[in-house]
Amino acid sequence: MRIFSKDVRLQDITIMYFTGLAALMVILVASYQASLPPLPMPFRMPLDPLGNLQLAWNISYATQEIYIQLRVAELRHGVVLGMSDRGELTNADLVVLWDNGTRSYFGDAWSDSKGHVSLDSHQDYELIEAKQKADGFYLLFKRPFSTCDPRDYVIEEGTVHIIYGLLDQPLASLGDLNLSRIHMGVQRVLMLRPDMPSPTLPPDVKTMDVLAPNVIIPNQETTYWCFIQKLPDDMPKNHIVMYESVITPGNEAIVHHIEVFECAPDLREVPQYSGSCDDKMKPKKLNFCRHVLAAWAMGAEAFYYPPDAGLAIGGPGSSRFLRLEVHYHNPLLIAGRHDSSGIRLHYTPNLRRYDAGIMELGLVYTPVMAIPPKQHTFYLTGYCTSKCTRTALPPGGIYVFASQLHTHLAGRGVRTVLVRGGKELEVVQEDQHFSTDYQTIRVLKKMINILPSDVLITKCTYNTEDRSKPTVGGFGIMEEMCVNYIHYYPRTQLELCKSHVDPGYLQKYFSFINRFHGNDQCVCGDFGVTDQYAQLHWDDFAGEVLDSLYNTAPISMHCNQSTARLFPGEWEKQPLPEVTTILPKHRYPCEGGAESYS
């Protein structure tokens, strides 16, 4: 890689240390900076809890490149920035700025399975600018989305796990660096965003803040704080047209994500509450506040609804109660910090043409679906069948403009595909580096029209290598979910389009596996499904047969109206949709027919 001139290579930088690393780098790039126009950085987020490291970036879809700017408030001997599958320090793609006490270096590097760092033979990070400013040291560089280097991370749509760290000591060589021996952190972000301008808000827009009531953030690493806010009793129907985060200054690196839920409309009263969401003494009615209105995560921008649609709030048949949930990530155990962060809703009384709706796709919350223990990769799939969409959708269909993916702790990936005429048509949403710690509503690159008789397939990937017992579906954090909440218009009565394996076929599975392992006394009817899973002898064969069952057995469909009742029809023992896979698995082809993998 060549950076400052055609004759100066990275490893040839040998200027002596006169006034420190920052001054050194300014000298190196002084003539280069003069010809650079200012590069806007529309996306930014803090990395560390104290705000000493800030990441900013811009995207060029035309050249398939990402421009990254790193601000270091106080730089000593260097900085490490990297990306890995799930935030691991091992097998990570890195860019490193370091010094040996007399010379400064910048380069593309990688870590091995033990965290040992080596310089990459392919230098794919291109340094653009390094400059000391009043508020810190700035490093600007770029790299392609995909480099076709097997040691490099593929930057694609979905969650990117960023790792970072500061170097407090000089390095004789980069080979002396081991990430396990320095203080490192991890942050998650959606780096690739849709390339579209923000719509203009109407002149009559009003705002409503749903904020934490001056909470003292607990001095523990993870806190979920819940707060109930009541809407005005006489609030007429309005349309939410945009929402954005409101973060208390100084807490930008601690407020991790925020969600606002609408309570069930039939709840006439919900007790006032401000406290931990995990408190066993919290009012039980909070469990009936699950309808997502807004979701924000660190690094996310304001969320705009399409010009023709808005999310209804207020008016007859709506709830008068909202539940705010704020996730505080406080790894430094900072004490005494006050917070009033939350969501600002922008709404208008001038109703738009369509009500927006939210529909659940994926798997029903039931222990019928389970993941065996000790699995590196296990898939569960939920279906929204052609029979349901044909029954519930209008002739012109619906338009999906955003979605929110959801699993619990074992989830590793989520993918929803649209199928039409038995063939995969397009991916609705996908995240193969999904983390339950980073959940936000994601705007689609383009609206997708779902027609009657279309099929929607949501497939989730799980890892249970750290578990000795099976993981069943359910609401508990150690149980699992596989959901895609799609945001669409016009709103229909179809609230939920999900499935699970037919219970009768599951009982045949329990009977077969028990007999295979010499247990001829079937207790299938004497225990619940969770206990039956727990009592199985789990080996590779039991897991393989369960996977085969899920991919061949009939399903029970939940084609539910907003009243939680099924649409009329027969929904039990439905055959699995027949689908021809035609969508490519890999996004970026490389030279020589190779593929770049994430």
Automatic annotation (TrEMBL):
One cellular-component annotation, GO: chromaffin granule membrane
Signal peptide region: none
Q: Which GO biological process categories is it annotated with?
A: dopamine catabolic process; norepinephrine biosynthetic process; octopamine biosynthetic process; sleep
Chain's role: Catalyzes the hydroxylation of dopamine to noradrenaline (also known as norepinephrine), and is thus vital for regulation of these neurotransmitters.
Broad class of enzyme this protein falls into: oxidoreductase
Q: Which cofactor does it need?
A: Cu(2+)
Localisation per UniProt entry: Cytoplasmic vesicle, Secretory vesicle, Chromaffin granule lumen; Cytoplasmic vesicle, Secretory vesicle, Chromaffin granule membrane
The record places domain DOMON at: 51-167
Protein's pathway: Catecholamine biosynthesis; (R)-noradrenaline biosynthesis; (R)-noradrenaline from dopamine: step 1/1
Listed name of the protein: Dopamine beta-hydroxylase
Species the sequence originates in: Xiphophorus couchianus
Any stretches that span the bilayer, and where are they? 12-32
Q: What is the lineage of its organism?
A: Eukaryota, Metazoa, Chordata, Craniata, Vertebrata
Q: How does it sit in the membrane?
A: Single-pass type II membrane protein
The Enzyme Commission number assigned here is 1.14.17.1
Catalyzed reaction equations: dopamine + 2 L-ascorbate + O2 = (R)-noradrenaline + 2 monodehydro-L-ascorbate radical + H2O
Keyword Glycoprotein listed: yes
GO molecular function per UniProt: copper ion binding; dopamine beta-monooxygenase activity; L-ascorbic acid binding
Q: Does the keyword Aminoacyl-tRNA synthetase apply?
A: no
Q: Which UniProt keywords apply?
A: Catecholamine biosynthesis, Copper, Cytoplasmic vesicle, Disulfide bond, Glycoprotein, Membrane, Metal-binding, Monooxygenase, Oxidoreductase, Signal-anchor, Transmembrane, Transmembrane helix, Vitamin C
Q: Which family does it belong to?
A: Belongs to the copper type II ascorbate-dependent monooxygenase family.
